[in-house]
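Still learning. Any example?
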Amino acid sequence: MDHVLIVEDHEENRNLLKLLLEVNGYRVTAAGNGLDALADARRDPPDVVVSDVLMPHMDGFALCRAWMQDSTLRPIPFVFYSATYVRPDDEQFALALGAVRYLIKPLEAGVFLTELRAVLGQWSGRVAPAPAAPLDDAAIHALHESALERKLEDKMAQLAEANRRLRETEDKFRRIYDNLQDVYVETSLDGAILEIGPQVATLSQGQYKREDLIGTSADALYSDPRDRDAVLEAIRQDGRAVDIDVTFRNRDGSIVPCSVSATIVRGGDNAARIVATWRDISRRMAGRAQPA
C-alpha cells in the first residue's frame, strides 16, 4: 500500500484529500505545515509527498528546499498542489527546487489520482531526478522572495478588484435607495432609529429630515401607539408585517395615512434589527372616501 504524505493547512481541504486517497487504497499521513511534515516524514517516510504552497510556519517552497537537503527524503518524489501560486514562474521555481509535478487546484478527483499514480509509477523504488541546474542558496532565496512578491501583487490586485466591485454594488444600491418612493426605516429591537431614508422629507412635507430622526425613537413616527403595536404583533405572529395601515405623525401634529411592511433581519454584526418601509397611501384613502 503506497504511503502519501499530505501537507495542507486548510483542514477541510486536508480532510477531503485524505478521504479521497484512503478510499482509493492509499495509506495517508497528513500535516498542517512544512515543519510538521518534515517531522512526520523523518519518523515515517512516505512514498510521495503532496504539498500546498501557502502555509504557516514553513511554506511549501521552504519545505521542498529542506526536503531536497535531507539525504533520506531527497529520493522521495515531491508534488506541489496549490490554488494560490499559479503563475508559470511559480511552477518553474518549484521544479527548480526539485519537485516532480506542479498541480493547480482544483483538479477533478480522477485527474488528480491519475497524476499521482503516474508519479508513483515513474519513481517508485527509484530516486526522483535532481533539478537540471541546481540552485545555490542565494538564487533560491531570491526566487523565493520573488514568488512571495508575486503572490502579494496578486492579492493586492484581487483586493483592488473586490473593492471596485464593492463600490459598484454600493453605488448601485445607493441609487436605488435614494430613488425609492417608499421610506426605508431601520430600527433596533427597542425602537431606536438606526437608519431612515431621505424620502421622509417628502412624506413629512419637509417637516423632517433624515438627520432629525436618526437616534430617536420610532414611536415618534406613529400618530397612534396602537399602530406600532399592530406592526410588532404581526412580526411576532408571522415573522413579518405586510401592508399594515398606520398614520404617520408630522412635527406639527398633522397626519399622513401610510402602510408599513416590516421584518426582522440580522446585520453584519449579527445584531437583530427591524427593517420596514413606509408608503404614503393618501391617494388610496382619498379614493376610498369618495362616494360611489
Q: What stands out?
A: The chain has a mean pLDDT of 83.
